[in-house]
Design brief:
Layout lengths: L25 H23 L7 H10 L2 H16 L3 H22 L2 H12 L8 H16 L7 H28 L4 E3 L9 H13 L6 E3 L3 H10 L3 H12 L10 H17 L5 H5 L8 H34 L10 H13 L3 H4 L5 H16 L2 E4 L11 E6 L5 E8 L11 E6 L2 E2 L5 E2 L2 E5 L15 H18 L20 H7 L5 H4 L14 H11 L3 H18 L9 H9 L18 H4 L9 H19 L4 H12 L7 H9 L6 H6 L5
Parallel strand pairs: 5-9
Antiparallel strand pairs: 1-2, 3-4, 4-5, 6-9, 7-8
Length: 680
Amino acid sequence: MAKAENPLFQPFDTHNATAPFSKITNAHWEEAIDRAIGLARQEVDAIVNNRARPDFENTIEPLERSGEDLNRALGLFYALLSANSDDEMMEIAMRVSPKLSDYSTSIVLNEGLWNRVKQVYDDRELFNLTPEQKTLLQNTYDSFALQGANLQGEDRETYRRLSAELSNLTTQFGQNVLKEMATYEIWLTADDLAGLPESSIAAAAEAAKEKGREGEYLFTLDAPVYMAFMKNSSRRDLRERMWRLYSGRNMQGEYSNIEILKRIADVRRQIANLLGSPDYASHSLKRTMAKNPAGVYDLLNSLREAYTAPLQAEMAELTRFASTFEGAPVEIMPWDYSYYSNKLKADKYSFDEEALRPYFELNNVIDGVFGLATKLYGLQFTYNPEIEVYHPDVKAYDVTGPDGSFVGVLYTDFFPRASKRPGAWMTNFSEQYVDAEGKDHRPNVSIVMNFTKPTGDTPSLLTPYEVETFLHEFGHSLHGLLAKGTYASVSGTNVYRDFVELPSQFNENYLTEKEFLDGFARHYQTGDSIPQELIDRLVASQQYGAAYACMRQLMFGFLDMAWHTIKQPVSDAVAFEISAVEPVKIFAPVDGTMTSPQFSHIFSGGYAAGYYSYKWAEVLDADAFDYFKQHGIFDRTTADSFRTNVLERGGSEDPGELYRRFRGQDPTVDALLRRDGIKK
């Protein structure tokens, strides 16, 4: 019998080229990636061997369009590696990582290709290029230059070796985080559940039952489980135990990331030095809105100065409250903050997030979040059961525009499982682009979260934070779905990383808008709309803890920048982290705990020297939403401008120019400070 052909070898003959997941096995991945690398090399060779004078059409454009088979395989493989992985896929990832690194490096260090790219760049004024084509040319040139194309002799081989090592290290870091997280099982009895909401208790009982231990309660460190426990458990000893476990991950044992992260930081430093920069941040930030480390520190320090006094006031108030609540002096420790903060919020605003859960039933929230895009941009989302999915929890939707035109496919994946990493993210299975024949390939986009699962007769009920997370990732998905570019590499979310969070964080603003909530927030049992009183409390409490939240983000930003501005290898990672976060620390360091070993964003997730971008984009999103509020939060004229100047344009032009085109001016921090209650 003839061996069935690998389904990844050809474009998928399905609705919008969606993946036929049931036909793809682990045995197909490496074979397809190996073959695709070979084909991509041939395409590059054809460009290099073209004897015609280099121009945009015979060099830049075919280089952009090369590797179609590789993009198809990798777009699926890495998405599933995060969302539905197993040990075999992780092993495959480790095997293909050096192959991909070698391929990428071989492109950048291909002298014949670089000479052609450089020739087109030098002659760019001779060509009648569109703004998007100018951006693609600049990006292509910068990509080569910033990845060592100008290196010679031994430096080229050093760069190749370091790039391969870095690829392996970052893959191993991410896998260690996932693998260790899956090992944590905290078994409790009925006597340990004081303060926990019924939803947490039911979920823990269900998890224990699935393990064959009925009558016990199983807790994990998955985000919704951990957060609910830390906010509600009145058992301080158990809160401390959970916090130490969560904050001590990947520090020792089989899945320790300590030596790995130190090496990652130093390899990045060495690469930056090879390429002429004093540190990795200086190298990496050249193609961002911030431009350089000074631009980042200007933002971080300005926010630190604005939020330090409010933080001190917040912590003093919290300490007084906790001491009164307990009837004895309390020193707030990191495992106490969420618990007492939740109590104080309820006391000040008669507000408890758990009281809002019944109004945020997941299906209603889906309707509300999808409906936001309908009101703003005229989009429609139609569930399509004929589209194959990679797990039974996943659903796929056809997305259409106001004129009925097809926009793309959106996959939603909401619940935790062992095969899925923690957190929430958006990814593209395939990007939007226009091919050489003029056909517009619409994107296949996925949003992945880890929400509270339904239990028994109780549906999935979300906290306001989880609704906010949904809005955030949905904003990213709209950036991908609404893309109207010609070239995939500058389409959709392929923008400067300090601009990429604008559409997602912009969406979060709607969480506290009555006009939005009234459209979907209904009690799952009575059907009543969320009461005005609860909306008022939610709005009033939104600014609560704003200084703490900001300083926590600044801590991540300072830590990221510290690791990526090193001038020599770090010997003591613990001491280094303590020193790095000193300007923005909230609590004294606790032995046996660290942030760096689990900091996937910067060590394996593409945010190296880029974590500041969340706050950078927060300035943008507050400023943008302030502009919406001036005209009406569902104003279609304003929404059309945001869509056409921001969401559709991707990275086709300078983001500062795109934003000014929408807003009419540069952003300021004023709207953010007002939103957080720091400035009146």
